[in-house]
Design brief:
- With about 190 residues, the protein is an alpha+beta fold.
- It has one domain: 3-Layer(aba) Sandwich (VC0467-like).
- It contains 6 helices and 10 strands, in the order ββββαββββαβαβααα.
- The longest helix is centred in the middle third of the chain and has 9 residues.
């Protein structure tokens, strides 16, 4: 893993990752890792990286090339819309660079054509239903409430399909205090 943590200094910004606090009891964000695709004075938005759905992309979208990779739940906003992260850069017109080596969006017809022609490997693109969004100042308020920890992550970590333990892995790398919390059961009454 390429995740580098410095929780005392990092602030939310484009390309950073938000780690939900271990005891955040929110139906959408409990034990999540969220990539911030944008963060500015107007608000923030990003994608939950560790919420694969029980739906394959071809099951969710008709008239789509043969591509059976998992669709991820990106967040509770616009759940009926498709979004994507990729490492293809300017090969996909209208893409927006999030960080060096990682983009989101771009011309959907180009993506479909490249998938049809088998020019895109699964590790180069990830699809999301919906996104996570915060109005101006909302994420800053949640940071003051200590709902999130900010950290850096590498493109390989963000694009990895092995997301089952991503939340715990990040916490373990944060040191002893968080490593203990990473193993804390979701429902302590069942302990």
């Amino acid at each position: 893993m390429e995740i580098k943590l410095d929780i005392n200094k990092l602030k939310p910004e484009q390309g950073k990752v938000l780690i939900s606090e271990p005891f955040l009891n929110d139906a959408y964000f409990k034990r999540t890792v969220v990539l911030l695709a944008e963060h500015n004075e107007k608000g923030s938005f990003g994608f939950i990286l560790n919420r694969p759905m029980d739906v394959k992309l071809n099951d969710a979208i008709s008239d789509f090339p043969d591509y059976t990779n998992t669709l991820y739940f990106g967040g509770p906003v616009s759940k009926d819309q498709l979004f994507y992260l990729h490492t293809l850069g300017k090969e996909i017109d209208e893409s927006i660079e999030i960080m060096k080596g990682l983009w989101w969006g771009g011309n959907f017809e180009t993506v479909k054509a490249k998938l049809q022609n088998k020019e895109i490997d699964e590790e180069n693109i990830r699809f999301f239903a919906g996104y996570s969004g915060w109005e101006a100042g909302q994420l800053d308020g949640e940071m003051k409430e200590k709902s999130w920890i900010v950290c850096n992550a590498g493109v390989n970590d963000i694009m990895s399909s092995d997301t089952g333990n991503l939340w715990r892995e990040v916490l373990r790398k944060m040191g002893k205090e968080y490593a203990i919390l990473a193993n804390f059961p979701e429902d302590p009454t069942l302990n």
